[in-house]
Structures are given as C-alpha cells and as structure tokens.
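Recap from last week: sequence in, structure out.
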Amino acid sequence: MFSFETDMSNAKTQIRVADKQLDFPGILQRMIELSTCYIVLFGHWQLNCCTDNNIYAIDKNGDILWNIQDVLSEHLGNRKDVWYPQMNMTPEGLSVLSYHGIRYLLDPKQGQLIRKQFVK
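Predicted structure tokens:
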C-alpha cells in the first residue's frame, strides 16, 4: 500500500509503503505504480527551490531501489546534480526530461539507462 502526506509550508513529503515511512524534500508531483515498484517525482512551487535528483524508485516493501543520480551519474559529466521536471511511462520505459533539455529513457525496474536524446 502506498500513501503520502505533504507538508506544504515546509515542502516535505512523507511516504508510507508497507510498514516503512520515508521522508523526502519537496512536494510529490507524480507517482507511477509499476508491478514491482513505485516511481516518484518531487518538485516545489518555486522553481529555484526544487531539489536536485528528485526521482526515486521505491519497491513494494518500502525500500529505495534507486535515485535518478545513481542511474545517470556516469552520463551527467560535470553536472552530478540535476533537477528533473517531468517523467512519464512509455511502452519503451520511463521517459525523464532533465532541466538541461536531455530526455533519458530508463528501465525503471533495473534502474538503468536505455538511451538519451538532446531535445533543446
């Protein structure tokens, strides 16, 4: 079971999965439920306050499988911390758009990059 509470004044979200409670900076913007995990994206009402590396995969037991930084660290070059404003599921995988105009296609269950495309 997935449930959450958002503290809007402090821009923090508490997620409960199974019997675990997880605390995240930011406001839950989008959650995608897959058969083995939940993919969550956090944001903020002020763009300049958005937390970097704001996408997580949480398994059905409440453990964090991966953070977007773990998946993309070797592909980011000097930019190790990036904000991601958008994510969607496609037939090919999880499509994630970075603030810098790069669209990444990920295998959400394995936490691996399939490919990237410059869209700027």
